[in-house]
Amino acid sequence: MIKAKVYITLKPSVLDPQGKVVMNTLHTLGHASVSEVRVSKFIEIKFDTDNEVEVRESLEKICDKVLANPNTEAYSYELETGN
Amino acid sequence: MIKAKVYITLKPSVLDPQGKVVMNTLHTLGHASVSEVRVSKFIEIKFDTDNEVEVRESLEKICDKVLANPNTEAYSYELETGN
Lengths: 83, 83
Description:
2 copies of one chain form a homodimer. Chain A is about 35% helix and about 40% strand. By secondary structure, the first copy, chain A, is α+β, with helices and mostly antiparallel strands. Chain A is elongated, with a radius of gyration of 16 Å.
């Protein structure tokens, strides 16, 4: 079994209105030292195989076609090999 | 400056319908070895301070009161001290 941790983040040049709202809320609650908030997605995917090459190939397609919007989002991932 | 990486994940006992939909989509697209998908939030917060104790105190409150729903979600975070 291979577990992939996939991070889908907005590209740095893209405005993050949700993060802005969270930041304003935190300021209102007195957390004055907060200077930036970015909200992203974190997706865990388990694969029933131990073939890392195959998993990486699948993941590239999955991120490109399903999980991330290539216009505004970037992705990265880590693999964990487990029992 | 301290950067916090916050992970808001559904508790293991809580069903993740969004993850289920993603998994079904991946099966339809031929990624048959995918056995589980869980969708979570990943939030980056920058603090304009180098006081780690203060940041940890803030983060506990922020996660408990703003970011996570304690009934269904768990949180964890890592701190990075930067320039």
